[in-house]
Amino acid sequence: MLLPEVKMKDFKKYLKVWWLMVGGAIALAFNSRIGAGMFLTGKVARFLLFFYFLYLLVSHTQTLAGYQVNQIIFFFLTFNLIDVGAQCLFRGVYVFRSLVISGQFDFDLIKPIRPLFRALAGRIDILDFMTLVPLLVLTIWLLPSVSGGSLVNSVVYWLLVVNGLVIALAFHVFALALGIVTLEIDHVVWIYRDLTSMGKIPVDVYKEPVRSLLTNIIPVGIMMTIPAKSLMGLTSAGIIVFSFGVGLVSVWLSLKYWRYALTKYSSASS
Amino acid sequence: MAAISKYLSIIRTSLQEYFIYRLNFALWRVRAVMQLLILYFLWLTAYGGLNNLFGYSASQMLTYILGISLIRSYVLAARLSEGVGAQIITGDISNMLIKPISYIRYIFSRDFSDKFINIFFSSIELIVIMVVLKPPLIFQSNPLLLIGTVIFILVGLTLYFLLNFSLSLSAFWLHGDDWWAPRFIFGIIVDFLAGGLFPIDVLPEAVRQVVMLTPFPYLLFFPMKVYLGQAQTSYILMGFLISGFWIFGLFLFQRWLWQQGLKSYVAAGS
Fold it and tell me: Among B24, B53, B182, whose Cβ lies nearest the Cβ of A61?
């Protein structure tokens, strides 16, 4: 297993390596200030425009699928927290295919750090990180208005947000493994992004069978909707336990698949 | 005649390219369907028990959303010409400049094949969605409005080509991956201001009036507005004048940009 085997000493080593990679990512991102500025502007504009659209729509209809405007906004913020967090941390998946087909992945395999760590977290999107900070502030600011002041619900909410990130981690590990076995990775990641984007709004909005698909087959609902619903006190304890179970099982399965995929890596390059 | 056959050959070979990368294309269409479903269910749920929202009945809005997805597949399908920036940055455009063809017509021919194949497949997808979801749609029977819709689709197509091409030419003055940054912002602006997410009438009056002076609403929103029979004659004439002004202005602008770009182009690649 990746996580249980990591000791305190190892943890410090990985943190140091990760920090070095963050420094590299910052230098790379701001190598061109014009490009970085435009990308950052675009990311912020995309968030604000969809935010405005949701606000405009639900303030006219009063409710959407039974949710009030501040609740719908909160679902959107939770989606962004998990989506942007995953984009920021697991960016390495976007360049992994080129490493495999060029054979450069060999160099990661011989280094004294786990290749999965390098492949997954080897590139950090610092622009996404910059958008994550105001998102967090906005979420924390809006949180009391939807939680009804319940401390337990707030704690469970943050744990479920982490669980959402764990499911996102599992998916990215699965995509990396698939990249080794089939060399097909880019589209899988984009399909994942489109599917998870359906979590911008609560999955209750979708009609059957799409809703069941998003809850039971592809855990978009568990990743994006359940955390906010638990904060609002709209989920049962059983569903919360089930959500954590899905998180643990998905990460376990993805790591097993990753180990299997490594045995199939031929180092042949194209 | 020989000149036309050259460009017909380009259209033919571009179409063949699609069938080589079938998985690429299939996944591209899957993503388009997912994006459509998000909007469809969002608007369907927004209506709930309401008869009218933002001046649209439920059937008008659902017709708008599905109609936009069809128009989008025609007007905004230009994935091949989006590579112009990359060709400039890498220096690959040099190969095209020495060939006995017009580069702009070459790009337009490539775009045409993209539009042809996209409208074919999106029509099939739309029929499947209509059969499965059975949305209450409006089928326009007034021939004048249908002709007006087709004319404005052609206007949108021309406008998008000119906007897209002009934007791609910015690569003459940008470096490295920076050429992609203006495209990123452009995509976000088009998503929101062209009416792909919601009809422009949804916006507050003052904002709407400003947006209607830009070229974006004439890409998607205006043709559907005409189709739904919601546009008065004076409104249509005004739309024709504004979009005509933009087509004329952008035509001159892209010619000037192209000439200036060629002067500064050093074929060094990135």
Answer: B53
Of B34, B54, B188, the CB nearest to A45: B188
Does B179 reside within a domain? yes
Whether A65 is covered by a domain: the verdict is no
Whether the pTM exceeds 0.80: the reply is: yes
Give domain status of residue B12, yes or no: no
Instruction: Tell me how many degrees the CA angle B180-B29-A87 measures, rounded to the nearest 5.
Output: 45
**How far apart (Å, rounded) are the C-alpha atoms in residues B124 and B217?**
26
Instruction: Say how many Å lie between the first and final Cα of chain B, rounded.
Output: 38
Could you say which DSSP state residue A67 is in? E
Per-residue tens of pLDDT for chain B, all 270 residues: 667 788 888 888 887 877 776 766 777 778 788 888 888 888 888 888 788 888 899 999 999 999 998 998 888 887 666 678 888 888 888 888 888 888 888 888 888 888 888 888 888 888 998 998 888 889 989 999 999 999 999 999 999 999 999 998 888 888 777 777 888 889 899 988 999 888 998 898 999 999 999 999 999 999 999 999 988 899 999 999 999 999 999 999 999 999 999 888 877 655
Residue A55 is assigned to a structural domain of this protein = no
CA R_g for chain A: 19
Taking an 8 Å cut-off on Cβ atoms, the answer to whether B203 and A56 are in contact is: yes
Tally the domains of chain B: 1
The residue range of the domain holding A205 is: 74-264
Whether residue B226 lies inside any domain: the answer is yes
Q: For A198, which of B38, B45, B174 is closest by C-beta distance?
A: B38
The answer to the question of residue A47 being in a domain is no
Domains contained in chain A, number: 1
The domain of B67 spans 18-269
In a domain, A136, yes or no: yes
Q: Inter-axis angle of helices B143-168 and B233-264, to 10 degrees?
A: 20
Residue type, B18: Y
> Which residues of B lie closer than 8 Å to A, measured between beta carbons?
23-24, 27, 30-31, 34-35, 37-38, 41-42, 44-48, 50, 53-54, 174-178, 180-182, 184-185, 188-189, 191-192, 197-198, 202-203
ipTM above 0.85, yes or no: no
Specify the residue for token string 């097909």. Answer: A184
Number of residues written out for chain A: 270
